[in-house]
Amino acid sequence: MDIRPLTETYAVSPQIQPEDIQAIADAGYAMVICNRPDGEIPPELAAETLRPLVEAAGMGFVVNPVVGGALTTENVEAQRAAMDGTERKVLAYCASGNRSSIVWALAMAGRLPTDALIEAGAAYGYQIGQFRDLIEGLAQKAE
Questions:
Q1: In terms of CATH, what superfamily is 4-142?
Q2: pTM
Q3: How far apart are CA 126 and CA 124, in angstroms?
């Protein structure tokens, strides 16, 4: 398991495994967001297979599949709602953590400076900078 904190309360990771779930809970995460569509993974890693394990470990679980190259406004709104739904730490996962970092940056537009959002992802090699104009546009709408 490779947890990559973007802030003190939000982290991303590549695909989680059933054996990772207790360690995620022990690390203080209260919410797990699945940003990976089930069509990309074997059935044993499907969201509804992992959900009962995550919930049994005392965490919330939100399914918000982000299709590569097809990120939607609904994805951004669902990510924001999931993050706002807990006062404790959130872990979002996808294949590499990239989509989870991008949807987070878009959901945080207007809440954190654009440069801070881009730099948080860049620390792990995520390419959020290509979304600068979109982040700034969303930030303006949020004002």
A1: Protein tyrosine phosphatase superfamily (3.90.190.10)
A2: 0.94
A3: 6
